[in-house]
């Protein structure tokens, strides 16, 4: 019989599990002991509450008792187990609650005890696994059940001898429980629950992981072979882990070790796994899951090769603020004509602007034509209302107490935050852009320097942060002719916004083009030219390659001064995507890296093919053993000779019932045996030909037999 136990704090989850009727299961509540409540949920609450004085945060002990399926009297077995178990651990006077479950005609029990005694001391569960197996062997002996070969049988037998139960120990010895290697469970309760939850069978994971291991010889080929099964490798807290297609995490060492043990092949140790995966810095679990989610949820073009368990992307280089941009002093001079005034407090900026407006008003007040003002009062009032409206929106998104009216004349457009874009986006009348994220406490500007920097300085002073400016880094075009500066029509901008939005990007229309958010950076798209602000990040490169592939016919032309590092990054990304790059001089080192990557890619394809070929060949061996003539003719001659000549009818019948995973691991041995048969044919002067199948007329249901 099987019994398992857990220890915890109790709670609603345990009550839900015990009362679950999933899969047609029936539930019968046991009579409680030492508890006043009638319902199980209340009994568990009472048990936990009465244990509050104990010196432990895990006062609840939960045991499940599973008599064999063919047991004639499961109630008697459960009662015997409870009696022996409580005597073993000293739980005779502890509060107790429990249930009986009946599913598909099989009955088992769940029992929960309080481990806290009246004086606050806690019942000891030391060596509970071995002691629980000892109790199980006693119950099996006393109830006439077949013995179960457990992991701790030797310890249990030694304890039984010491306690005077030589009868049970001798029966265990006679049953062979103390001989041979210690058994290893196929899976743990947690693994079985995980497989049930994710619908990904554990045997399938192990078989495919072992096939990938056997078909590879280094870290990259192993990761690529795993990717063919939609698996990936990541770095966990205690070593390498395997992430299956459902996103669940498994210990890579344990998966491979269990698969090798099940197939009877050479043991795969943790040291062997570390040795093979040495040299590649794999992503951590969270990064690998995010990458998997992004690959599944995005349709924005081809991604970089090797994303499966690939090396972690190197961090982006620091953003340079001194590249091909107007001197900061121009923006600073707009405040008070002095570099030191840039970044002054909001009050000082507002006061300076007010003085300028008052001076201009004093100069023009004498030139006002009252009659003209009366004639155009509708237009004047519309402008005033528009300015007040913009100031109102700015006040809503700005920090509390910010004087938005001081900047109403500078605002062209304001986009409020949305769930998809938590930052407010503001366009100034001079074409500059500002992005204000209240939750993230960040302020960024890009585009022409000027009024956006003034507003950013005021907002940053109110928020207590430093504003950032995304300076123009570089630009690219569809070709050299596309770099000529032309005015962008409104229809073109709208179509560009729709184009980028359809590909999962955040795009904003403006009079100077379509502005695209690419991670930290911003890209201005005018149709045949992209202007990059904020540095050449990985996301900028992805967006550029996407534009080149889908809108520019697979080509891109670099404009301006690009550093060698920037050229190398864009060039190798373009090579991976099949995009031609002009006006670019990649370094010799990056060209060599690309050659090595192509060679590794070819090897990866070969590795995947080998893994899949082995599984397909194993399937044909199984089907050929069952009499499938087409499968027989697909096999290479050594395997044909193995099935036909080396095996007899009983062996073929046995082989046809084996799993593909078992046969895959044994293929090399089958080939050697088949080759020996072919050599024997040659020595005797015979010629081996694929056989013809026939049915044994005496038994229509028997497996196929073969004759030469």
From TrEMBL:
InterPro entries: Endonuclease_MobA/VirD2. Residues 287-305, 317-328, 693-702 have a biased composition (Basic and acidic residues). Pfam families: Relaxase. Residues 287-330, 675-708 are annotated as: Disordered. It comes from the Bacteria. Coiled coil: none annotated. Signal peptide: none annotated. Residues 33-145 form the MobA/VirD2-like nuclease domain. This is MobA/VirD2-like nuclease domain-containing protein. It comes from Rhodopseudomonas palustris (strain HaA2).
